[in-house]
Design goal:
Blueprint (H helix, E strand, L loop, with lengths): L7 H16 L1 H13 L3 H24 L2 H4 L5 H23 L7 H17 L11 E2 L5 H11 L3 H14 L5 E2 L9 H20 L6 H27 L1
Length: 238
């Protein structure tokens, strides 16, 4: 039976704009790929930063307007997973493999492991914990590869850290969602904003950070990487 709820015909086309916002991540990802293929990594990560911003907006909007029930034909979750895999996993893996960060064959080995473990993680229905954290490394390769490229550590460190993150994908260790996790959010959210600000500065500065700014960026990165694991450890001690 057709639902003739008053106003429904007018609201649903407007609500579909939220799906269009999510889907805009696809052309953004394509432009990012084209920039990366030309070796313009600053531009590529600038586009990925825009995709990250879109991803931070569309989810709250979808939940606010209950899109899953009001537009049941279209799966926002599936659409979001497609875009997120491209921007959080595949394109960072491309940067890891195609740039000069790693020599052959490590560039292909590490890149292949990133897309492989990322695909498995996106299929995990138990990736979220009750407190809003992620269980296992949440395939946030856009931040990891960006940080490694900006800080330019040794090849051995880069390989080791990539392999560690791949292994942690399947570990029962929590990783923070800076908005949804309430515990220490008073600190985590400002650190996240600081990280994003320094990331923007690095992009404008040709993908480099130096001196004290690089130190602050490193500390902020490791805080976001470890904070939920520290909270998990404190809970076990208590």
């Amino acid at each position: 039976m057709t639902d003739f709820t008053p106003g429904k015909e007018r609201t649903e086309p407007a609500l579909f704009l939220i799906h269009i916002l999510t889907a805009s991540g696809a052309p953004i990802a394509l432009v990012a790929l084209l920039a990366g293929a030309q070796g313009n990594w600053a531009e590529m990560f600038a586009w990925l930063g825009l995709a990250f911003l879109v991803d931070g907006i569309d989810g709250p909007l979808a939940r606010r307007f209950n899109i899953a029930e009001r537009l049941p034909r279209w799966s926002g979750a599936s659409l979001d997973f497609v875009i997120d895999y491209a921007t959080y996993v595949f394109l960072p893996a491309f940067a890891l493999s195609w740039s000069l960060m790693l020599s052959s064959p490590w560039n292909w080995i590490c890149g292949g492991l990133v897309v492989f473990t990322g695909a498995l993680y996106f299929a995990d229905n138990g990736m979220k914990t009750p407190d809003g954290s992620f269980k296992g490394f949440p395939a946030g390769w856009n931040m990891v590869v960006f940080g490694l490229m900006v800080l330019s550590p040794s090849e051995a460190f880069t390989i080791g850290f990539v392999l560690l993150c791949c292994a942690l994908t399947f570990a029962p260790i929590r990783f923070v969602h800076p908005v949804r996790v309430r515990r220490w959010r008073w600190l985590t959210l400002p650190v996240t904003l600081l990280w994003m600000g320094l990331a923007a500065y690095a992009i404008l500065n040709g993908m480099t950070l130096e001196g004290s700014i690089a130190t602050v960026f490193t500390v902020a990165s490791f805080y976001l990487f470890l904070v939920s694991a520290v909270q998990q450890l404190l809970d076990r001690v208590d």
